[in-house]
Amino acid sequence: MTFWQTKQNWLWLFFALIVLSNVTLYSTSxxxxxxxxxxxxxxxxxxxxxxxxxxxxxxxxxxxYSLKLFIALMAIGCVLARFIIPQAILAPxxxxxxxxxxxxxxxxxxxxxxxxxxxxxxxxxxxSTRLSNAPLIFSFPQAVDQHVKRHPLIxxxxxxxxxxxxxxxxxxxxxxxxxxxHKKTSYIAFQAMMIHAIILETLGIHWWLHSKYPVLSFxxxxxxxxxxxxxLADLQAVRLNPTIIRNDTLYxxxxxxxxAAIPLTxxxxxxxxxxxxxxxLPKDMAQFIAKDFEAVKPSVIIYCKNPVSVVLPFGFExxxxxxxxxxDDTHGFIEDLKTRLAAN
Length: 344
Hints:
Strand order of the largest sheet: 4-6-7-5
Shape: elongated
Order of helices and strands: HHHHHHHHHHHEEEEEEEH
Number of domains: 2
Helix content: 55-70%
Distance between the termini: 42 Å
Number of strands: 7
Largest sheet: 4 strands, mixed
């Protein structure tokens, strides 16, 4: 299936066109001439685009149907309108945008209360993490869910804390025993190449941009620093968190990009015959396969009784019935897993 045959991609393209067309309308001489013909009508059209149409398209493309998300996106659209539309022609409709900004401030206040509760319970969270027998990349999010109300913002915050921990504070930590996913691949070389490319791009482009567009260069610098930290954290998390079977649970992690705790009672079938694997794994199958410069087939595919949760970057979750895994010690992992399953 090509890019243009996917309905979701068309929706993202439509969303981008709505935003860019409105930016172009007020930032170019041609657009300015159109606006001046009927300024009030054009502004009303832009407000409908940014406050109603664009949020609806975003929700359809994201496939996350939530009234709360729609209200938040409407508020963001109001804020965006104040930046895009010149104040002189927006003045008759400024009350509409101020309502949106007010709603956004209320949402931010609620989010700050959630973050405050996270900070208040942090000592208890750390204690629960230390007492847990699960690997830290699993035990810390579990402790957060135990003490703080489940919320997407808390998941993102938890994910970011794990990222900074692995990037900056665990370089002397010893590697635990388990089944590694990366040693027989080019994963480390791939990550090192990406980090090297970002650093060179930062040095080369940042100074050139700084003299012409200082704000843009500063944003790019922050993004590049974050990207390097993210890649370092992912590398460290892959190295320090091999796949293990503990507490009647299969703990699978591929750095901070992907993790899943699968109870052994959920596993119904293990396929190890490579001839049964499809040439290209389906999209509805979670893949715990380290990056390599060439295509790699999984060592084993696990089928689950019920969909199991796979945690993605920033705490987002998807559920899968099938899990494909590529481990370095295929024989040892399969034998260990079969033995544990037989014991259950």
